[in-house]
Sequence to fold (668 residues):
Amino acid sequence: MLTERQKEILKIIVLEYIKLAKPVGSNLICDTLNCSSATIRSEMATLEELGLLEKTHTSSGRVPSEKGYRYYVDNLMEIKKMSAEDMLKLQIIFHNNQLQFNDCVAESLKLISEMTNYTSIKLGSASHENTLKEISIVPLNDDNLIVIVVTNMGYVEHKNISLPNVDINDVKKTVNLINNMIVGTPIDEVSEKLEFEIKPIIANYVEEHEKLYNAFYNVFNNFASKNVDVIGKRNILKHKEFDNIEKVSRILDKFEDDNIANLVDEIKERGNDINIYIGKENNIDDDMTVIETSYKTPQEEGKLVVVGPKRMDYDRVVALLEFIKENIENQGDR
Amino acid sequence: MLTERQKEILKIIVLEYIKLAKPVGSNLICDTLNCSSATIRSEMATLEELGLLEKTHTSSGRVPSEKGYRYYVDNLMEIKKMSAEDMLKLQIIFHNNQLQFNDCVAESLKLISEMTNYTSIKLGSASHENTLKEISIVPLNDDNLIVIVVTNMGYVEHKNISLPNVDINDVKKTVNLINNMIVGTPIDEVSEKLEFEIKPIIANYVEEHEKLYNAFYNVFNNFASKNVDVIGKRNILKHKEFDNIEKVSRILDKFEDDNIANLVDEIKERGNDINIYIGKENNIDDDMTVIETSYKTPQEEGKLVVVGPKRMDYDRVVALLEFIKENIENQGDR
DNA sequence: TCCTAGCACTTTCTTTTTCACAGTGCTAAT
DNA sequence: ATTAGCACTGTGAAAAAGAAAGTGCTAGGA
Fold:
C-alpha cells in the first residue's frame, strides 16, 4: 500500500513523462509538492524498489515502469471529461444525418487517430460468426460476372469471376440453389456445403458444372476471415520513442491487416467497458499499449481498439472510446 | 556523344551504385577496364562536366546524377531476360487456373513488391470513365439494407444504408427506376440525374421520398473516384537512402491512397510500352523513380506502376513489368 | 597525344578527450 | 521524518586527433 504522497509522486511522474518523454527528476516534483528534493529522492527510491519506477541509467531521473503505468491506470487516473473541443468534433460526426451508421464509426475512429496521433482499429465479426445472408450476381459480359456475397452482419464481399462457355441461366439457377439451400450457414462452412449439397445437383444438368462449382467454391474459400480496418498506421512515426527505422518497421509490420486482426482477436477480454493492456500485457508489441472496447448493435458487433506507445495519454483515449462506444450503441438503431 | 569507354564507365558506376549505394571510386573501375585509376579519374571528370555524374563532396567517389540515370536507361541498359527464378514465380501465378484474372494482377504485383522491395500500384479506371452497369440491394433487416453498385468496368462498391419507415417495396421500385433510366451514365453524373430524373418521380408516390433520395444520392456522391491499390508501402523502409524518419514519413504520406491515385493519374504518358520517370521527372517525389505501364483487356483497363528509389534496379523492374503486362493482355480473355 | 605513376590535398568517419550538466545517493544535522 | 550539503556518475555535446578513401594535378614515358 502506497502512502498518499507516494501516489502523488507516481502520478506526477507518469503524467510528466507522458507529456515530455523525458525522465523526471526530483527537483521538478518538489516544486509542486512543497518538500525538498532529498525527500522526493528517498520516496522515489522506495517506489523503484516496489517496481513502479525505473531509471534509464544510474544518475538519471525516473521513468514509469510497466507496473507503474498499471498502478496509475488502476488507481490514480481520474477519468476526465472530454475536452470541449474533442467532444464537439465527435458530436458533429454522430449528429450528421448525412452519414450512415457505419460511416460514423469509421469517421470517429479516423478522428481519434488524427487527434491523438495513435493508431485505431475497427474489428468486425470474424467469418465464423457471419452467416450467409444472400448471394447475387451481376453479369458484366458474356464471360465475366461479379458475385456479391452478403452476410447477416452486413458484411459484403464481391469477386470478379469468369466463366467462359457457361450459360448465364445455369449460373442463375445455381445462385438460386445457393440462396435457397445454404443461406444461414456460417461463412466458413459454406464451401463444404457447396461441395456436398450443390455440386451433386448441378452436375446433373450443367455442362460445365466443374467450372461453375470451382468458381463459387473459390469465392467462399477465399472469403476474408477477418473484417478489419486499421486507421492511422503512420502515426507511429510521430512519437519520440520510435525514432529509428527498425522499431518503426517492426510496428508497421504488426499493423498489417491480417496480422493485426489476429492479434486483436486474441485479446483475452477482461470484461470491462474499456480494457487497457500495457506493454507485455498485450500481444501486439511490448513497447505499445492497447486500449480496447467492444460494441454491439442490432446490425453489427465488433471491437474498437486504440494502439499507441506505452507513454500514452490514457485519460484522453479512455474518454474518447467511452464516448464513441456509447454513441454507437445508442445510435445503432437510429 | 560519349566515347565507348565513357559509356562503359558510366554504366559501371550506375550498376555499382545501384548495387551498393556507395559512391564509386576510380580504383574499382580500373580493375575491370584495364587502365590506370588516373585515366579513369580524368574520364570521370569529363562525365561530371557533362552532368552525368556527381560527387557527394570534393574528394568522394562519383554517384550518378539524374541525367546520368536517364542516359543509362535510354542508351546503356540492356533489357535482360528475367531471371529463371523470377520467371518461374510469376508463371505460377498466371498459370494457376484457380485464380481469377483480377487476382492474377494483384498477386503478381504483390510478388513484384516482395521480390524487389519496391512499392507497386495498380490503378483502375477513374470514376468518370466508369458508367453505371447495375445497382442492386440486399435488405438486412427492417431498417437497413445494402446497396451494391457495379460499373461497366467491373468495379464494385457497396454501402450500408438505413431507411427507417421506408417501405421496402418503394425501395425496390426506386432501384428498378434507376436500373431502367440511369444505367449507362458516367458514375460522376449519376447523382445529378438522380435529382432531376428520379426524385420527381418518386416524390409522387413515396411517403419518405426525401430520405430515400438522400440515401441514394450519398451512395453515388461518395463513390470512390479512384480505384487504386498500393502494394508494399512499407518497402521504402528497406532502402539505405531512406534512413531517417522524416524522409520515410514524407514518402509514406505520398503513398496514401487518394493522394497517390491522383499523382499516378497525372503522369503524362510518353506512349512507350514501359515509361520511366526518374526523380524530378515524376510528380511523386524527387528522390524516387516511377516506372509505369498501361494494360487494356476487354474487361478492364488500368495502369501498373512500380515506385522505388532512383537507385533502382531498372533492368529487373522493366523486365518484370513487361512480362506482367504481356500476360495480363493475353490472359485477359481467357 | 594519350596514358600513368606519384604525390599533395581534402573530406569524411571514427575514436578519444574534455567538460558542463542533470541528477542521484548518502550523511549528518535539525 | 526532513533537509542541506556534497561527492559521485552517466550523458551529451564539442573539440581534437588520426586513419581511410578518394581526388586533381604534374611530369615523364609510349
Notes: The longest helix of chain B spans residues 187-205. Residues 35-39, 42, 56-60 of chain B lie near DNA strand C (CB under 10 Å from a C1').
